[in-house]
């Protein structure tokens, strides 16, 4: 019985050495998570001061040079959006695409909204998981690309309310 007891530590050592070492996570030089964390921390304070009610949002939209940006998919935009909005899907955000849509003026007032601004919870504005509402990454990305004059519709409304100015472009 004693020789078996001596083999157990040896077997354990052999098993451990045969297990492949866990490789360090690859580092992608094109992704900066700590930078993202710093940016979202900075945006938290700015965004909290830039949530506006519908009446203010609509009033701001009438001012010269103000842009209403809809970052939903082209299909959702076509199925319905706030009148006067332009569409640039969030997945297409790049410095160049934003400059093409917004222009070179990084201080241009930009108004944003998303599915979660509408209480209807049906196409084309099905409610997203609350922490994943498109307003949040849209705001973060706009500020990250240098557009700091961003204002967000800060309430949930019914898109059939005439005050919203909901329009469709589907035919």
Shape: globular
List the quaternary state of the chains. single chain
Order of helices and strands: HHEHEHEEHEHEE
- Rounded mean pLDDT is 90
Strand content: 5-15%
Query: Helix amount, in percent?
Result: 25-40%
Round the Cα radius of gyration to an integer and report it.
25 Å
Major sheet attributes: 5 strands, parallel
Low-pLDDT windows of residues? none
Count the helices. How many? Answer: 6
Number of strands: 7
- Termini gap: 85 Å
- Strand arrangement, major sheet: 1-6-5-2-4
Which class do the helix and strand fractions yield? Answer: alpha/beta
Topology of helices and strands:
Layout: H1 2-18, H2 33-48, E1 51-52, H3 54-61, E2 67-70, H4 74-79, E3 81-82, E4 86-87, H5 95-102, E5 110-113, H6 135-144, E6 150-153, E7 166-167
Parallel strand pairs: 1-6, 2-4, 2-5, 5-6
Antiparallel strand pairs: 3-7
Helix pairs in contact: 2-6
């Amino acid at each position: 019985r004693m020789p078996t007891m001596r083999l157990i530590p040896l077997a354990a050592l052999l098993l451990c050495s045969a297990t492949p070492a866990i490789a360090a996570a690859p580092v992608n030089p094109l992704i900066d998570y700590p930078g993202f964390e710093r940016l979202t921390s900075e945006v938290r304070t700015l965004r909290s001061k830039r949530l506006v009610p519908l009446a203010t949002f609509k009033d701001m939209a009438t001012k010269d040079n103000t842009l209403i940006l809809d970052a939903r998919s082209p299909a959702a935009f076509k199925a319905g959006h706030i009148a006067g909005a332009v569409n640039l899907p969030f997945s297409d955000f790049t410095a160049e695409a934003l400059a093409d849509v917004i222009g070179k003026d990084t201080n241009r007032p930009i108004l944003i909204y998303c599915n979660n601004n509408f209480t209807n919870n049906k196409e084309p504005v099905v409610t997203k998981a609350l922490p994943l509402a498109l307003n949040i990454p849209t705001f973060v990305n706009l500020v990250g690309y240098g557009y700091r004059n961003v204002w967000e519709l800060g309430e949930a409304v019914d898109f059939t309310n005439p005050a919203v100015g909901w329009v469709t472009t589907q035919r």
